[in-house]
Amino acid sequence: MLFLMLFMACGLPEDDYSTRRGVVECKKIQKCARGLYEYEYDADFDLCVDGIGDRIDGQTAKRLSKCDYDPAEGQRCLNRIRRMTCEEFVRRGPGSACDQVYDCTTVEPGGTGTGGGSIGTDPPTGGGTETGGTTTGET
Asked: pTM for this structure?
């Protein structure tokens, strides 16, 4: 128990983030969006974890030179997803649960911030449809 508390206090190492997030999201998808799980991942847990992990790795790899990973936020992201109800998860996906994991603001000489915030790595899992790169549906 002490080990778990110490681990949680230190946060989640960046090397483990995408895989651990894939596991947490896939458990939620299995439970809350069974049709998506069966259709998108052939009801294969490892395929689901790999798919989500690859998506997160691909989206963040492009921005790593401009963004800083926050290990404490990485762990909080997983905890927030775990606490989401099925209704919340299906309507919004992980949504803002993980929007602070990567800080993409940079400070220019003279103190001017650029960049525009954090990486949004969460496509919708339900509650809307994609049209021309834009998601529509209930908010």
From this structure: 0.69
